[in-house]
Design brief:
D-Maltodextrin-Binding Protein, domain 2; 9-stranded mixed sheet; 15 helices; globular; disordered N terminus; binds fe (ii) ion
């Protein structure tokens, strides 16, 4: 590359084609995101920039794979569905910092790594789906759903699923271990049945009258609305944005990190910058009903209809530290066996 640049300096006439050449080539993406969501966004990036994207999809193990691949890893970027894996990637030493005004201008400081080793792209909140018919509350705390008032009325997916694990870890970070254990025990005893299914099943079960309340992610409401079979589930529920007593509503972040040994580092940076641009940010909201990190991209009307979101301000690092504690409590109290 240095040789080419020197040639350019010597022969100015030939320089015009250099920027175009520099934009060519590939970028290799390792990602946990659903193909149906991320593929159209990456296709739009290719259409816009001419940079071809090669994608490795996986449900787990990408950081470990990149560590094992070492300096020869073909991975240019890692795109995750949650912040835990971004922090883990940084801790493993497989990321590199980006100096980019585009990124630091677009992504609020709370939604990126303090050393610019990773950047948030979109986020969602973990909220309460409640029965439109049977629940009159308009505001709730996460803590209050352990009250006996909800006995036999709560539906949830697996307590160890990462969505619940991170929410429960946030609870540990807020309340401390002992109070969090009492909270989760109360929640367990309010379950209508053993935890099962996914987030959409919370709405499905509420529609069927099996329970009245449960935690689920915001974007599923948009997806259920679009699916004729699931629309009745979405219509049976209302969304409440619960807060921790001393905090806000729990959010989780999807984001990107450029890998330390990225063979196409310039293209990787271009991709990260493009993903916080208007086109991509609109796709995150319109196609996946997520919250955009850009303040000037409007949220989808379905999502803004839930009310004003105040994201919880507990530092991500503290929540991550509490994950094993939350997992241990869930095991110890037999959360997944249902109410005692
Ligand atoms: Fe999901």
């Amino acid at each position: 590359m240095k040789f080419t640049l020197r040639l350019c300096a010597l022969a100015i006439a030939g320089c015009a084609s250099l920027p175009a050449l520099a934009q060519q080539g590939d970028v290799n993406v390792y990602t946990y995101r659903e193909p149906a969501l991320i593929k159209p966004i990456l296709d739009a990036f290719t259409k816009d920039t001419g940079i071809k994207v090669n994608i490795v999809f996986a449900k787990e193990g990408l950081e470990e794979r990149i560590v094992a691949e070492g300096a020869r890893s073909p991975a240019d970027v890692l795109i995750t569905t949650d912040f835990a894996r971004l922090v883990q990637a940084k801790d493993l030493g497989i990321t590199q910092p980006l100096k980019s005004k585009i990124l630091t201008d677009a992504v609020p400081a709370a939604l990126r790594d303090p050393d610019n080793q990773w950047f948030g792209l979109s986020y969602r909140a973990r909220v309460a789906y409640v029965s439109k018919e049977r629940v009159k509350d308009t505001a709730l705390t996460y803590e209050s759903i352990a009250d006996p008032k909800w006995k036999g009325r709560v539906c949830l997916r697996d307590g160890q699923h990462i969505y619940n694990n991170i929410l429960f870890a946030a609870g540990v970070a807020h309340m401390g271990k002992e109070k969090a254990e009492a909270w989760l025990t109360g929640l367990r005893d309010n379950l209508a049945k053993k935890p099962s299914g996914g987030d959409r099943e919370v709405a499905k079960d509420i529609a069927a009258g099996a329970c009245d309340i449960g935690f689920a992610n915001t974007y599923y409401v948009g997806h259920m609305n679009k699916n004729p079979d699931q629309r009745p589930w979405a219509e049976a529920i209302r969304v409440i944005l619960p807060t921790f007593k001393d905090g806000g509503t729990h959010v989780n972040l999807s984001g990107i990190a450029v890998m330390k040994h990225a063979p196409h580092a310039a293209n990787a940076q271009k991709l990260a910058e493009w993903l916080v641009g208007e086109t991509a940010q609109k796709m995150y909201t319109a196609d996946n009903f997520e919250f955009p990190v850009r303040a000037d991209t409007p949220v989808d009307p379905v999502v803004s209809g839930f009310g004003k979101l105040t994201p919880d301000n507990k530092p991500f690092a503290e929540i991550i530290k509490a994950r094993p504690i939350a997992a241990d409590i869930i095991d110890r109290i037999g959360f997944n066996n249902g109410p005692k």
